[in-house]
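Quick one, tokens below:
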């Protein structure tokens, strides 16, 4: 954390009654600055609107090649998202019977396309740009890849799981370890290790179990209830 940010956290937020954080990693970071904040910090994760997603994927199929493993990732094309790490790792995989669709735009696009060429992945990796309805692409994929170097709390991971798609995620800070339940909705690996990635891509998952794990923990209704309980608690103290 930059010095100015650290000073803000240390002195500015002391005036707040409660501090809501989206992940355990964020909570640990704040406590590392000022351990006395423990009593003020409330952990409430980001929600995912499962009803909306289910409506968006109704009867909205896209053409896919069922003979190949269909991978997808969504996000701005920048260094944070680690697409360079993912492309380099995919280049080392022996079995090239896969397709990776990258949804998003950003300043790194040309650099990433060059990297695709260098790894001879022109027949595997495709840049589809921004999509208003990414869910129809998600639901037709076999795996969602979250290759980020860091995240706040990765909403796209929740959305992929809400579509019943397992997630293979890089081991980054920002809540991914709270979302992923091994052998249920995905796996956390070192995204730069092609052997780990190859093994992860061979695993089978139950789509309905994935959806249930997200519905139970992160559905909008679940998260809204936590906020309501917090507001009630604070009102009772006045």
């Amino acid at each position: 954390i930059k010095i100015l940010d650290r000073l803000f956290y240390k002195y500015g937020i002391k005036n707040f009654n409660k501090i809501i954080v989206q992940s355990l990693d964020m909570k640990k970071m704040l406590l590392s600055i000022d351990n006395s904040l423990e009593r003020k910090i409330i952990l409430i994760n980001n929600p995912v609107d499962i009803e909306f997603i289910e409506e968006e994927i109704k009867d909205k199929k896209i053409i896919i090649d069922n003979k190949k493993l269909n991978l997808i990732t969504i996000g701005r094309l920048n260094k944070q998202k680690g697409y360079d790490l993912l492309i380099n790792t995919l280049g080392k995989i022996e079995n090239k019977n896969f397709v990776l669709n990258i949804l998003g735009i950003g300043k790194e696009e040309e650099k990433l396309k060059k990297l695709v060429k260098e790894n001879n992945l022109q027949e595997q990796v495709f840049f589809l740009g921004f999509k208003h309805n990414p869910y129809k692409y998600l639901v037709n994929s076999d795996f969602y890849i979250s290759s980020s170097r860091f995240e706040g709390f990765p909403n796209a991971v929740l959305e992929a799981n809400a579509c019943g798609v397992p997630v293979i995620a890089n081991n980054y800070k920002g809540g991914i370890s709270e979302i992923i339940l091994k052998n249920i909705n995905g796996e956390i690996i070192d995204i730069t290790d092609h052997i780990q990635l190859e093994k992860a891509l061979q695993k089978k998952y139950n789509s309905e179990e994935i959806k249930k794990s997200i519905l139970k923990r992160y559905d909008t209704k679940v998260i809204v209830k936590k906020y309501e309980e917090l507001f009630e608690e604070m009102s009772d103290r006045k």
